[in-house]
Amino acid sequence: MKLLIDECLSPQLALRAQQEGHGESSHVVWLGKAGWKDWELKAFILQEDWTFVTVNSVDFRGPKVNPGSAGEYADIDLHAGLICFNGPDFIDRDMQIAMLDAALEMIEDQGGDLVNKVVEVTLADDGGIEIEIHALPSED
User: Fold this and answer.
1) Could you tell me which residue ranges the DUF5615 domain spans (predicted)?
2) Which of 13, 25, 70, 106 could pair covalently with 62 via S-S, beta carbons 3.0-4.6 A apart?
3) Is residue 103 part of a domain?
């Protein structure tokens, strides 16, 4: 799995992913894609088979209560996975790293396959990290 980190997240996440064995991981800015619109990133992400990591969850997976009903991945039948960070408007770098570590651990525990899945990584009110994985598109 190779991770592409959205520009609104720290580039340190790409370095962390590389340290954790995801050597092809990168950051949007490093690839010269800073400022690209979501739809432009979507085409690049799909073409290059990236698992995308973003805090713009709604923009990519649609509303949490009905994922896939809207957003950039609404019309996608096959993708390498999406990791959505959910929390306050600002998540500091250390917390972003903790969220990525938790997501990577959960993914590994689930067998490492994120094809057509979304990992929701949410900061709980008590400061903990909650993770859930669901299909996108849904398997209904």
Assistant:
1) 1-61
2) 70
3) yes
